[in-house]
Amino acid sequence: MTSLTFTQSKFFLAGKEHESKEILEVKNPYNEEVIGETFLATERDLEEAVEASFQGFQETRKLPAYRRSEILLKIRSKLEKEAESFAKLMSLESGKPIKDARREVQRGILTFETAAEEAKRIGGEFLDLNLSSSAENYYGIYRPFPIGPILAITPFNFPLNLVAHKLAPALAVGSSFVLKPASKTPLTSLKLASVILESGYPEKAVNVLPCASSSGEKLVQDERFKLLSFTGSPSVGWKLKNLSGKKKVILELGGNAAVILTPDAPLEWMVKRCVAGGFSYAGQSCISVQRIFVQKTIQEKFTSLFLSEIKKLKTGNPLDEAVDLGPMISEKEALRAESWIQEAVHQGAEILTGGKRKGNFLEPTVITHVTHEMKVSCQEIFAPVVIITPYEEFGDALKMANHSDFGLQAGVFTQNLNQILQAYESLEVGGVLINEVPTWRMDPMPYGGIKNSGLGREGVKYTIQEMTEGKLLVVHQI
After folding, report:
1. Helical residues (DSSP H) of 174-229, grouped into ranges
2. Could you tell me which of 292, 302, 303 has the C-alpha nearest to residue 391?
3. How far apart are the first and last CA of the chain?
4. 7-253+454-473 has which fold?
5. Is 378 a catalytic residue?
6. Nearest-CA neighbor of 384 among 397, 400, 365, 369?
7. pTM given for the model
8. Cβ distance 50 to 176 under 8 Å?
9. Cβ–Cβ < 8 Å for 88, 100
10. Could you tell me which of 413, 421, 412, 349 has the C-alpha nearest to residue 381?
11. What single-letter DSSP state applies at residue 437?
12. How far apart are CA 192 and CA 78, in angstroms?
């Protein structure tokens, strides 16, 4: 294998490169070629990493705001210089189309830039406590402090930016961390770790170790961590929360995002955005468009245009600049999605386009005549599959959208102010997007869900609030 396609990365323990006897091969989902390898950390490695993180925190917690900001800006600058190499590595190990990988790198750059700015805004407040005669000449200061070492566990689908959303706020507040990256996509995380170390962040604070899921569960139970930040499946997330003890927990879990289309919004715009929202990165996003509710008077026209646009999508090698739709992360996941589609058809659903699978590739698929009980509707399919359901009254669409165990984001296309306010009031989600699909995310915004979609909010400013704890100082002037 050539150096252009093969990457060997050691993991980082206390800022130093380490290896073990157990090699973790990383395969390209497009052709199953081994494009790199790293090593799985042992139980001893993990124990040393936790202890290093605990010791590293004693140094990072003392870093002044300007220094934390400088470090984050150095990371941002390095990411910008190495943007193309990050994008190509990400595309190779995740199967993400190269143009989408480039966008993710830009989002990661913005996340670290935002963190550099927020590092200087972590202020406190002065409290005038002399509100009664017994408190005359008493004053207070209330300010946030970093809570301690952070444990971060990240998924395969955004191997740079979802890692950035955990590590950038940690650096902004002055916390150490242990990161367990996804086993399918660890190379991007390890490359980012080297950039963080080059920036001058204390070595013991930087620990990035691929490991088995069982080892991850042991890390979650370690009381030396003060916060667990997990992004992944609901079943794993809620299990880890139960194991986490007294530490703070941020969970960014699944969804089956709904979009409501009304007749007064531009049809071409709705079609364009729903295609992008439903099929970008083969639908492997927790806010990918999965359920479209379209008003009956525009159902036929929308569906016709929607199917026509889908046929224009190019499937193939993610490194091809023209490719819109790459493979799913594994054949196992493609088989699962295919089985859900077939099950829905057996239960009365109709495939309007797609539905066929070849290896890791699943055709962009649109299904109609779906009931809520079908898996393609009530569960997160995490694949390039969209269902279309007609409705009569706007209130009916809101009820159908809420008929879900998930509540991450929802989109509503309308020019009607009353409908906008009604949707904002009624939809049981963490974020409502108007004239946009729920797949849209600007990284500094508060992002997170309710119900089975998780706990807490990401977005650097909001994660910083979770990673800090207020402490009060009272002074009596005598």
Report:
1. 186-198, 213-221
2. 292
3. 75
4. Aldehyde Dehydrogenase; Chain A, domain 1 (3.40.605)
5. no
6. 365
7. 0.95
8. no
9. no
10. 349
11. -
12. 10
- Are residues 281 and 99 in contact, defined by beta-carbon separation less than 8 angstroms? no
Ramachandran region, residue 361 (left: φ > 0; alpha: ψ -120 to 50; beta: rest): beta
By the 8 A CB rule, do 111 and 161 touch?
Answer: yes
Helices (H) and strands (E) in the chain, counts: 15, 25
Residue at 419: amino acid letter: Q
Q: What is the pLDDT of residues 155-200, one digit of tens each?
A: 999 999 999 999 999 999 999 999 999 999 999 999 999 999 999 9
The tokens describing 422, both together, are 């009604």
Beta pairing, strands 125-128 & 138-146: antiparallel
> By three-state DSSP, how is residue 84 classified?
helix
Note the pLDDT tens digit of each residue in 72-120.
999 999 999 999 999 999 999 999 999 999 999 999 999 999 999 999 9
Indicate which residue of 93, 104, 113, 252 is catalytic.
252
- DSSP letter string, 281-337: GGG-STTS--EEEEEHHHHHHHHHHHHHHHTT--BS-TTSTT--B---S-HHHHHHH
Is the alpha carbon torsion for 334, 5, 10, 175 positive or negative? negative
Which residue in the list 286, 380, 458, 466 is annotated as catalytic? 286
Task: Give residue limits of the domains in the chain.
Answer: 7-253+454-473, 258-442
Question: Is the distance from CB of 412 to CB of 438 less than 8 angstroms?
Answer: no
CATH domain 258-442 topology: Aldehyde Dehydrogenase; Chain A, domain 2 (3.40.309)
Tally Cβ neighbours within 10 Å of residue 396: 14
Q: Is residue 286 among the annotated active site residues?
A: yes
Cα 430 to chain centroid, rounded:
14
- What gap in Å lies between CA 189 and CA 199, rounded to an integer? 15
